[in-house]
Each structure stands twice: as structure tokens, then as C-alpha cells.
Design brief:
The protein is an alpha/beta fold. The chain is built from nine helices and twelve strands.
């Protein structure tokens, strides 16, 4: 599979080719390589018809149905039902924050493109949801090389701005998924912890596997500001001028408590939680994340 864009540069693709993504607990059908099929007896069992989508293999068309209805449908078999994954990318204003390392949204977009490249390369089905106050762009899970082009095109045209609602986006995505999937949420997760827990509970109720990939800038973790500064909210909040020394201790205390509450909430609801810093090479963070999953770890944090 080959694709060149600012999100998937050749040197990144070369490194990605040495990695693989494995998912636990979510596989409903047989997947090439990593997953075992729950289907016993016959090696191939017809499951359902699905309307043809550009990128599907023409050989899977049901020509009899096409002849009767003049509508293209493909046959799905349990043996061919691979892992389904949806990448949820936060495009709210806070994700636009940038430092010398670049913006969180650019980092998240490159991460999403990399994960899509890996999974589609293993014949998995991958979808995308870019969300703000609601899902702004949606691509349903499909396999095939053409799906990577669709995902990258949406990511390249998306920008981070405005307010967001993780709750609205998660419920929207959950309502669109007709069977179990791996849901990967890439966000800075600056939401009340109870809202995040409610979202994870909804996904768990629907038997989806969930991974939280928290994307942060070093400024948010360390609060390095030393002189009087003007802080402007990126999601509509009013600007304020303050002496950083007066708020630094309180900010760091609340940030660390919020991070711990997120970690505890994710663990309690069976979700993985990882933190990726934008000043660390993405390929290094991604490699660590995949190795942790491949090694059977139930979650962790890639901290500074």
C-alpha cells in the first residue's frame, strides 16, 4: 500500500511498515494473520448483503441481486469479517494549541493516518469520525486501499476550532455502529471526568473496545510560563492576564488530579489510556503504544 501526503511522509511509512496493531476482545470474524475466527464448521458462512461502497472489491458483488434490482450489493461472509475500528479525532479549538513542536491537532491527524495505514494494511476495516460539538466528518468502517485515501483527504481538510462535545460525538458514533468495534479516541480530553466516564460506559455497554490516546503539549503538562502573560481560551473563553507564579501551583495540582481521575475512570471501565506528547517523535510514541498492546498490557501512559 502506498500513499504520499504531509501526514504520511515516506520516512514515516518506512518505519510504519515494521509495526503492526493488534486488538483484543473485539474480533467477530476471521482476520488475516492476527485474529482467530469464532466460526466453527464450514470455513465460509454467508452473513448478510451490504450496499456497495466505492473501494469494495467488484468480485464480491452479488450479480443476481444487481440484475433483479439494478442496485449493487456485496456479499459479506463471517470468514471475511475483520476487525472494525473507528478513529475519533477531536477537532475542537483546544486541539489547535501549538508550540515549537507543532499543534496537537496536526499530531493527532498524523497519528490517525498512521493507525489507519497499519490496520488497512492488515485488511482490517477502518472508519473516521472528526468531531467538534458533534461529528463534523464521518467515514464508515471499510477495508481496502481506497479507504486510506478517503481518511487522509478528510484529515487534511479538517481544522481545529470551536467548542466540542465528546458526549454528543460518542453517542453519534455508537448509534452508527451496528456491531462491535475498536473505538480509538484521540483528544486532549479536557472534559469533566464524569463526561468521559459516561462516554466510556456507553461504548462498553455496546461491547466496543475503547482506547483513549490523550494528545498533549508540554506546556500543558509543565506550565513553564514565568512572566505576566495573557491567556486566551481556544473554545470561546474570555482572555485573562495573570502572573503565572500565582496560578502555577493550583493549575498543576488540578491538572494532575484530572489526569489521575481519567486514568482511574478508564481502568474501571475496561478502557486503555495512553498519553502522547507532541514534542516526542510520533513514531516513538506509536511504537511504544503498539508494543504495549502486543505484549498484552491493559493500558499505560507514555509520559515524559
Amino acid at each position: 500500500m502506498s500513499y504520499v501526503s504531509r501526514l504520511l511522509e515516506p520516512n514515516l511509512i518506512e518505519r510504519l511498515n515494521h509495526l503492526q496493531l493488534s486488538a483484543r476482545r473485539v474480533v467477530e470474524g476471521s482476520t488475516v494473520g492476527q485474529h482467530k475466527s469464532p466460526v466453527k464448521g464450514a470455513s465460509v458462512e454467508f452473513r448478510q448483503h451490504r450496499f456497495y461502497t466505492p473501494g469494495d472489491e467488484p468480485r464480491r458483488l452479488d450479480w443476481r441481486v444487481l440484475g433483479r434490482t439494478d442496485r449493487p450489493y456485496i456479499k459479506e461472509y463471517d470468514e471475511e469479517t475483520n476487525l472494525r475500528c473507528v478513529l475519533m479525532i477531536d477537532a475542537s479549538g483546544s486541539m489547535a494549541y501549538r508550540s515549537a513542536a507543532g499543534s496537537k491537532f496536526d499530531y493527532a491527524s498524523t497519528l490517525a493516518a498512521s493507525l489507519a495505514y497499519l490496520m488497512l494494511g492488515q485488511t482490517e476495516s477502518v472508519g473516521l469520525a472528526v468531531f467538534k460539538s458533534r461529528v463534523a466528518s464521518w467515514i464508515g468502517p471499510h477495508a481496502g486501499q481506497a479507504q486510506l485515501s478517503r481518511i487522509i483527504d478528510v484529515l487534511e481538510r479538517s481544522t481545529a476550532a470551536g467548542q466540542s462535545s465528546l458526549q454528543a460525538a460518542v453517542h453519534d458514533v455508537a448509534n452508527r455502529l451496528d456491531r462491535r468495534a475498536l473505538v480509538i479516541i484521540v483528544s486532549d480530553l479536557f472534559y469533566p471526568v464524569e463526561q468521559v466516564r459516561e462516554c466510556l460506559a456507553r461504548l462498553r455497554h455496546d461491547r466496543h473496545e475503547t482506547i483513549l490516546l490523550r494528545t498533549l503539549d508540554a506546556d500543558e503538562v509543565e506550565f513553564p510560563f514565568r512572566t505576566w502573560s495573557r491567556f486566551r481560551g481556544l473554545e470561546g473563553e474570555a482572555a485573562t492576564v495573570c502572573e503565572p507564579a500565582l496560578v502555577r501551583e493550583a493549575y498543576l495540582h488540578r491538572f494532575r488530579q484530572h489526569r489521575q481521575d481519567l486514568t482511574d475512570g478508564a481502568r474501571a471501565l475496561g478502557s486503555e489510556f495512553h498519553t502522547l506528547m507532541t514534542d516526542r517523535p510520533l513514531i516513538d510514541s506509536l511504537t511504544q503504544f503498539l508494543h504495549m498492546r502486543g505484549g498484552g498490557s491493559g493500558g499505560g501512559t507514555a509520559r515524559r
